[in-house]
Amino acid sequence: MLSTGALRAHLLAARLAGVVATAREESLRSYRLFAARDPRVLIGIDPVGAWRQRDLVGLMAEKCGVSADPRCTEGRDVIDPERTLVALDAFAERIGTAAQRGAAVLLGTGHPHRLLGFYAALADALSAAGCTVLTPAQGHSVDITTRFGLRTYNLDYVRGVALVREPGPARPGCATGTHTHSPLPVRTVLAAAAEAGGPLPELVVGDHGWVCGAGQLGFEAIGLADTDDPALFVGEAEGAVSVVVPLDDAVRSDYYRPLTRYVLNRACLSQ
Q: Is 129 helix (H, G, I), strand (E, B) or coil?
């Protein structure tokens, strides 16, 4: 069992919390774009409130522990590890509740190179507990606007976790996928599930557009987010998203393994 103290120390040592790699300038840019309702930063959330940039700075200070001083415009962001731990406990509680109900769950990531292992371990544990891990729309195409123009990607699943890849041959089970913030993949998946008459998820687990897109459509959604992704925290503040765990979402993939052990233990799913 990984203690809270040991996990706190790991969060700081791995820079998942504390001083993180995310630049303050990049976070402030995201807040400005969100305030301007730029869809690249809204990533599926349709905010109810006005959410000016200064409102977002205040929200992110509350949710993540970043500086609330608008005059702080340079350097690295800071995530309070205590906030991460509290959110991880709430995240684990939702996972545990889903396991107890044998719920249908959907897991998806826009960070397959970093977070696939974290979500895949959750998918394995939930499946072993009797949950249905959904995999609709496998192989479907999704057109996503990127900085390089409109690109077509294919939906795929690796160990029960949805992701998108560029078209072309890929080895079965290959973890290589594309980084994306878009909510279009989860919308495609949910639409396909509905059209097939199959079960819809009672819980969606992931990041970026997977959480925001599902939460905006009324599905219970929980996930991870960095300080430059205000949409998830706005969704949480407005009730569209259930739980958001603040942490650096782009460190080495093996650095998330202690978080996996902690969440599964808290959810009573340790194997």
A: coil
What residue ranges in 118-229 does DSSP mark as E strands?
Answer: 132-133, 141-146, 149-158, 161-165, 203-207, 221-225
Q: What's CA 211's distance to the chain center, in Å?
A: 6
Query: Model-level pTM?
Result: 0.95
**pLDDT at site 174:** 55
Distance (Å, rounded) from C-alpha 216 to C-alpha 187? 10
CA atoms within 13 A on the CB side of 65: 19
Q: Across the strands, what pairs with 108?
A: 162, 206
| Direct distance between the N- and C-terminal alpha carbons of the chain, in angstroms, rounded to an integer | 11
Rounded CA separation 142/80 (Å): 36
Backbone φ, ψ for residue 156 (5° rounding): -145, 165
What does the pLDDT look like over 193-219, one tens digit per residue? 999 998 999 999 999 999 999 999 999
Paired tokens of 92:
């684990």
The C-alpha atoms of residue 18 and residue 20 are separated, in whole angstroms, by 6
Sign of the alpha-carbon torsion through 241, 247, 248, 249: negative
